[in-house]
What we know:
By secondary structure, this protein is of the alpha+beta class. The protein is built from three helices and eight strands.
Amino acid sequence: MTLFETRPITVSIARPAAEVYAFARRPESFPKWAAGLGAGLTRDGDRWIAHGLDGDVQVRFSPENVHGVLDHWVTPPDGTELSIPLRVVANGDGAEVTLTLFRPPGMDDAAFERDQGMVAQDLARLKALLEA
């Protein structure tokens, strides 16, 4: 059994969880706060294409649901699919948004730290957008 090192990265948002989920679940919203998906997304059947600095990647999103699940899967040009678990849960009148970051095999400490910082910035942007 292979287990990857993980880091849960969480932000509290002072908006109802249903509102946070309704905004964040739409693939068209992701470029507004998720810098890792590049400048924009275009639909391609059941998948979306993200246009980034390192080229285009395919993105697949979990279907709309009542559980706050915003998982998505990113497939770079090399064909390796990366799972990105993302959840919105109620916290009183607000919400907690948590992304679980997996450390892929061969990723050095500096790159893993950099990715954690990028995810934290993305979640901070989501918070700023929704609390404005």
